[in-house]
Fold each of these.
Amino acid sequence: MDLEMKSGKSRGPMHGIPILIKDNIDTGDKMQTTAGSLALVGNIASNDAFVIKKIREAGAVLIGKTNLSEWANFRSTSSCSGWSSRGGQTKNPYILDHNPCGSSAGSGVAVAANLCVVAIGTETDGSVVCPASVSGIVGIKPTVGLVSRTGIIPISSTQDTAGPMARTVADAAILLGAMTGIDDQDLVTMESKGKAHSDYTAFLDHDALNGKRIGVERKPQGKNQFMHALQKKTIDLLKSKGATIIEIDYLDEISKLGEDEFEVMQFEFKAGLNSYLSSSNAKLKNLKEVIDFNNANEDKAMPYFKQETLISSNEKGSLTDKKYVEALKKCHLGSKEIIDKVITVNKLDAICGLTMGPACSIDMIYGDRWGDVFLTMPAAVSGYPHITVPCGVVYDLPVGFSFFGIAYSEPKLISIAYAYEQASRKRTKPSFKKSFL
């Protein structure tokens, strides 16, 4: 890349930029792709994932892979985010005994700690925006279909997507543009034809909040007074920049879809992982073999929490199963109807709210305790885009503010998030404090 630049050739804004990617994304080089699992140690892909081909073509320099919540946090219901049997425990760069969230824990921490310029994470429900929020950075969960999933170890074909993580909205927008593209191996990307952009920096507008109508849940998020004060301060700033804030009711209705969402994930995880493993260079060729490996190596593979989610997923039937079809209709189509209706009726440009609370403590034995603020599900189950931007700190830990909207509304969301970011300037550098006390 340096030689190209010296000879006068520039591939664009990603030329020569050092980037890290989550260790569930294939690279056709000497690096392994393991999803953080000892069961996949030795899996070296034959080819780059489609999204990696795109960023290499754009000139990015891939310098490594990041740790993650093992199996993208789809192994156990009592897991500790940011821990994997291969990589150990990722730590929050602001207070080291606190949790980095996940599953894209390493990607979020690496960006916050300045180990790279930008990183790529993946999300099924919260796995980009959650670690971005608690690491005080920007994360974009794109519309499902904007970015190819070919070559990424899957959970849910309905909800999975890769997304950019960066210290600024501008950097995230640059990386997003390099990641998009139609892939004939991932048919859902066909839906992005005519809706995707190769340059999202065109939508960076300081005055984008002026005239926008933005919805916020009427009921206060959580019970913490500092979080309430932070949301009020953020909403007041949005108003001061010309936005009209509309109180809406939608979260209670969306939250009722949680059981159906998990049902869909389990069915799709079994089908998707079996397909991935069967054609990979991994020694294990299906989910059952992964489960058996973990059982045979329990002390190393499962020293803290077990694999009940892997087991329950393996017990599911095929994607023609009536339970799967009904759950998919309820959660995916149902969530779209709820969000589309509230946006249409109230003539909204976006919906906003605190992304989640400050990071909980690391607890590998008993698992995560994330509190009562977690605004990831609406955009996740619908497959809609979601961006989180730093909005302040609580207990010396970063908190993010979210904007999400209908499918392929990334240009509008990026412009809103950028205008807010520039007006607020709330990102602070990590302090690497050893403990909360």
Amino acid sequence: MGHEPLARLRAPIQEELEIDADLRLSIDMYLAVTTTAKQVYEQIRVANQRRDPNIKMLSYKAVKKAVAELTRIFPIKKDCCIKNCIAYTGEFEDYETCPLCDEARYQPQPPNCKKKKIPRQTFTTVPLGPQLQALWRTHDGAAAMKWHRTQTQKIINELNANDDCLNNTLANFDDVLCGREYIQSVRDGTITETDMVLMLSTDGAQLYKSKISDFWVYIWIVIDHSPDRRYKKKHVLPGSFIPGPNKPKMLDSFLFTGLHHVAALQKEGLPIWDAETRTVFICFLFLLLALADAPGMASINGLVGSIF
């Protein structure tokens, strides 16, 4: 992550997120045009200021920087095989050719060239820690993140009232929190009320209807949110973006960067500033489930997968 991002991760901002009207307008326009060229944003900015010179929309570069500073979220770029066989992470970090297809990692350069090596292809990972910290930086956001605590306690109270047996004693099995393994992990102290519970999901996607433009993503679903909130797009957290068109052959090498980051947080703990109580607490992450369709799950767990 680098020294500065790591220092920020270990020392979260201890003040509620507040955004003035001009900055909010700039961010709203920036988010609205993320799928178009930045020139569109600049044209909207000029049009707004022509209509009312008192509107102080930021430039595209400035609003992009402001979003990064407000959220402290940043991308990590790593090299990968031009054919998407592997990512150059973990055991492959120092390789200069792909062990599966023998394609070169870097663009060709003249002999004895001392310029920085340029990778032929990269993929992007968005670290989870800063994203989770950002969820707690408003009063409403912090309150929403505590659904997991209150719901878990309700389930345990109901089980205790029914002779402490999980079989057929809950009135409704309506969420993953009702699962036996989860409840047992809470009871034995593996998961505490200050920990956050997550699901990972991965799949391929098609950007355009009539083009070969496949790419792969994995996302984080935050179980601390209620079911009517956690699956909505604005509350789903990005994990990584893997370019296509070829399918990753060793998906675990692409997952490595994000999971290494999560493993470090599981060991050290993630400091969270709670905007509702205005206090800092240390959170540990619990990965409840890894989800995918049948071909995707085979890539995650290394099994053969479907033959159909």
Amino acid sequence: MSAVGVGIIGVGVISDTYLQNLSSFPDVEVRILGDLDVERARAKAEQYGVGAFGTMADVLAHPDVDIVVNLTIPAAHIEVSRAAVAAGKHVWSEKPLGLDRAGVAQLLAEADAAGVRIGSAPDTLLGPGFQAARRAIEDGRIGRPLFAQTVFQTQGPDLWHPNPGFLFAQGAGPLLDMGPYYFTALVTLFGAVDRVAAVGSKSREERLIHTGPNAGSSFTVEVPSTMQVITAFESGAQAQSLLSFDSALERHGIVEIHGTEGTIILPDPNQFAGRIAYVEPLGVLRDGGSREQTWIDIEHQDVAVGRGLGVLDMVRAIAEDRPHVASGELGFHVLDVLLSAEESAASGQTVAIESTVAAVPLLPEEFDPFAATL
């Protein structure tokens, strides 16, 4: 085999990081870019030395494209991915796979029938930081994992984004925009979710744009801008998660896993690397005993990788006939959990999760994104 051909549909802002990383992996080659704006696709192809550009149809018809990377807007994800499956292509989709359960279930069924694979962002769980933390947990550094706390709180993307309205619209908000990173991490560590309970709120019904050509204009907030979610897993573990666009205090990337023999902090699930450290229990405190605890860092090798790592894992998993890590089934289960949290917040009731997912595999320890393996 030689490098596997990739075609990208959608060349917006996020395409830059994909192109930068995919062009550095010897096992893949980006062969064509497609976009509704063909001129934008042309400019991006010239910038990154990609040999062809055109429309979505051009990408799907390209004979040397084996995997389509779907970087369109979330509302178009299912339509574009289904078209790629119909063309006989494997698909890697940016998060989320879609915005409704039925559409994603149909996509997965069609891919299975066609004998092609679906992969779904986020692929940060393939980064060396998360993989090393997961191995430490499985090696028993904190005993049996019991519960988790995750936090993402910020003043909101309207502070810096020139067109932030879509991030406060249906299908977004902090839950569906940032939640996939945190809940994918939790499902990977604890397994399938059994039920969720959530509450949500809005700090205000309208918000202002603060930067760019539309600065000073307002937009409507359609979804809760703060969500708090309690998650119960099939394993018996539980988690408490805060996701907010309403906080004056910037505080995010927090993932704490508490076990019978200690607590471990994981890297930001929106990043591919970061600090891993754990603390052991104090033990029995007697008169004059110290309550100070020392964090023990877990050394690991941070290889410089980023978005696109999930595409590479799919390529190698197909060649090696093994499951890929960031699967469509994982993406579907996380979407089901997030939509159920929305429903719980709206109804005030705990919502049982109907989908499930098998244990998420670890990346092979010898995995080197910059090696030519095909």
